[in-house]
Amino acid sequence: MPSKIINLLFEEIFSEADLSLLDELICQAETELERKFSDKAYCQLVIYLATVLRRADQGIDSLDLHVDNMKKSIEFSTAQQIVERLEQELEVRIAPSETDHIMLYLLGAKVIKTDHSRLNWDKSHAHVRHDQLYLVAAAMTDEMEKLCGTEFGKEKRRIVEDLTTHLRSAVYRVKYRILQVNPVYVEVRNKYNEMFLRTKQVTGHLEKYIKEKVDVQEISYLTMHFVAGLERVKQITHDKTRIILVCGTGIGTASMLAHRLMNEFNVKIIDTVSCRGLGLVPKDKYDLIISTVDLPGYDQDYYLKVHPFLGEDDYKKLQQRLNLRFPSASKVELSLVNRLIGIVEKYAEINDRQQLQYEMMYEIKRHNERRMERRFEYMLNDLLTRETIRLNLSCANWKEAVAAGTALLEEKKWVSSGYKEAIINNFTEFGPYMVVAPGIVLAHARPERGVKKLAMSLITLQTPVNFGHELNDPVKLVVTLAAIDNETHLKALSQLMEVFMNQKDLDTIVNATNKDDVIEILKKHSK
Q1: Catalytic residue chosen out of the listed positions 259, 444, 469, 489
Q2: What integer is the mean pLDDT of 250-266?
Q3: Which helix (H) or strand (E) covers residue 204, if one does?
Q4: Which of 84, 109, 134 is the last residue of a domain?
């Protein structure tokens, strides 16, 4: 959230940073690692490298991460090159531990695509470069083919490579228990639940490799990759509008959007690029740009902005520019539609059989989606109520802020007193990973650490406090989540993420002086 403190922090960080050099180093890292970072990841890397330089200037060492077992990775080698170049160009001394931190940033950075041209492939995977994650992704894909009763054919290579790219960062999120909420988790479960369950099964290969349990949020991201691959296999290639897809977040979101476009419209995705990479694409290679972010300066005749999961308004805009194709359907649904049309033909003349077929399929699909949605019961305003909201509390430090958030749940006997200690212990042991955005903490611990009932509380602080996060401190909003399992809270959590991404509504909550304003915002997002 914008504040004078954060503005001053950014001015301080970038006051002496050579941004052109940082840009050059990140572009070289992309080449070395054979991948293209998303716009968001690119910005995070710029900010982090500027922070490294600031610490070096002040003679401050970063914490030792104890990651000696990862120092043979190409990411570590690339991080070393970045540090050496910074020291040579700017004549500074950078602490050795900074290389470890930069390596983790490179490992965890979301990508928009990876360089497929440098990898060799055959059915036995015998000639793939020696990359254990690649072999894990290949094993997962092999098993998915069997579960789906299909062959991915020429798409198999791309599915494995995209999956490998995602797994590089996912492994470290799982290992370091970093919460990564998929903002479209509920939609994935509603629309592709069968594929989600298959993905959960094949994820056993990954769990065996990293010796850790993979949570449902990560599994939903993996599901998006397999769904996108299956849909690409189904596509026909004639008379398609050529599309350049611009996505500012990551390869999972880009793949999901690409598959939705190809599933609903007669299009061909020429390439997926970041905002930075768009200018390098020749204009004669595409007919239309579809972007999830604003593209200032681009002609509206050749550019459409849409939400990553294509809302109703997005469909209307796309239908005006693109030709619809018959939506995907199961054999059972198609058979039902044809039987219904046969009944209609007995009593009425059908002027456009294909259009009627399409509209019936659409209504059946919507009906099934609504039926699935009813499985996810708890909305955000079911959990955040007048009783579990407190505004402008005075807390001296982060521990008092955690205690204030859990106290609202303890009073209702929805959690035990041990839940507060579990959250504090998580911060102490794993660091400030629960500071999920500038000024925002999502405090939580495992269900077995004292949760008696699914619950959530929200507090704002009169004076922001530091939780120890380099970029997201100080914190003014603390949401405490008490989950009883891995699923029942996810609808409400998804809606909470929507609040966090709506800057106007977020500012209203943070600056609110009465609960009615907060409740009104929560109600708006609880649909």
Answers
A1: 444
A2: 72
A3: helix 204-210
A4: 109
